[in-house]
Amino acid sequence: MLKACSVSSVPSVSAAARRRKLSAIAPAWWDYTTLDADLIDEAARLTPLELSRLSRSGFTVVLYDTLAEFYVAEALEYVEAWRQSTNDNPVGICGPIGPTEQLPLVARIVNALNIDVRSGHFWGMDEWFDTATGLEVQIDHPLSFERADRDLCFSRISRALRMPDAHLHFPKADTRDYLASWEAGVRCAVMQGAQGDVKHWAFNDPLPRKGKYKDAPPTPADYRKLTTRVVDLHPLTIAQNARTSGGGNIAIVPTKAITVGPVETWKADKVSIWHAGQHDNPFGQRLTALMISKGIVDTSVPMSLLADHPNVQFNYFRGGLGTCDVEMH
After folding, report:
1. Closest by CA position to 210, among listed 27, 12, 19
2. Which residues lie below 8 Å from residue 316, measured CB to CB, with a gap of 6+?
3. Which residues contact 296 (CB under 8 A, 6 or more apart)?
């Protein structure tokens, strides 16, 4: 059974993990369904009020009453990061595709307030990988994340105000330039993200249950060593992206992606996760907050690794929290 611990001494998976059950979703993979039943039940029982009280030093829970307030607050994190930037001390933000509703708001705020963001930087946190070419998907791919960032945000910022193309860093199959951008003296003020059904940030999915990870998932220390890389996607991630972005058409969703890693995540001053209720479900939104609050880390729930990051904020739309009560539909 996983136990709570101090955040400064996050435990690796115990020897008992070798007797852990198979995933109820994909038996060849690790995921949250392999966790101890008591932890699952505790998360499912959390009320919105109890969720709001999970804040602790280094972990803040914020609830928003309206989607308008929620997405404006998310957009303001971009603006606030770029307003800190100067030519001598550049600052950037690492952002997701999913959610995307904040992106046009970012451009509108910058333009309306005439904010010069030319010294600012932006890192895209992930991109799809094309197995046929061995490269990242091209920008004309309907699911291209770079295309979405440009169309929804950067192309809408006035040319007189926006940063040059060289300040936009999108992950590629050849990760060398992207990795170098994290070592180029630009401070990442915040890494934003959402949480997928499989409890990832970016595409930091649980790993397949094979090889040295057949009986136990990677230790937190091992997973923390991962940098930006090409990854195989958990089946739940593929299904989710078909649901949220492809009308349910799984056939158009790539099975591999390029993702920012924990190494880069720990370079960010702050990690800010946005739960609108459109990506992960009511149970998942509760589970990861509980694990992070209590310092419970297990790499079958990758988001739980953030328990050891010094500054994490979970942002919730109150109307998207739902309930874990059983309802037949």
Report:
1. 27
2. 51, 61, 62, 63, 64, 275, 285
3. 2, 3, 4, 5, 39, 290, 304, 307
Query: Which are the contacts of 247, defined by CB distance < 8 A and separation ≥ 6?
Result: none
Q: Which residues pair with 121 in a beta bridge?
A: 92
Token pair belonging to 208: 């397949």
Q: Looking at 43-184, which runs of residues are DSSP E strands?
A: 59-64, 91-95, 121-124, 126-130, 135-136, 168-169
DSSP 233: P
Q: Could you confirm whether domain 7-12+57-320 is CATH 3.30.40.10?
A: no
Residue 31 CB contacts under 8 Å (≥ 6 apart), including other chains: 23, 25, 198, 199, 206, 234, 236, 300, 301
Summarised one tens digit per residue, pLDDT across range 141-171 is 999 999 999 999 999 999 999 999 999 999 9
Residue (of 142, 143, 103) closest to 127 by Cα position:
143
Put simply, whether the predicted model's pTM sits higher than 0.85 gets the answer: yes
Q: What gap in Å lies between CA 181 and CA 168, rounded to an integer? A: 10
Edge-to-edge strands, sheet with 121-124: 59-64, 312-317, 271-275, 187-193, 91-95, 121-124, 168-169
Domain residue extents for the chain:
7-12+57-320
DSSP lists the bridge partners of residue 191 as 94, 271
Distance CA 72, CA 109 (A): 9
Instruction: Please write the tens of the pLDDT for every residue from 38-61.
Output: 999 999 999 999 999 999 999 999
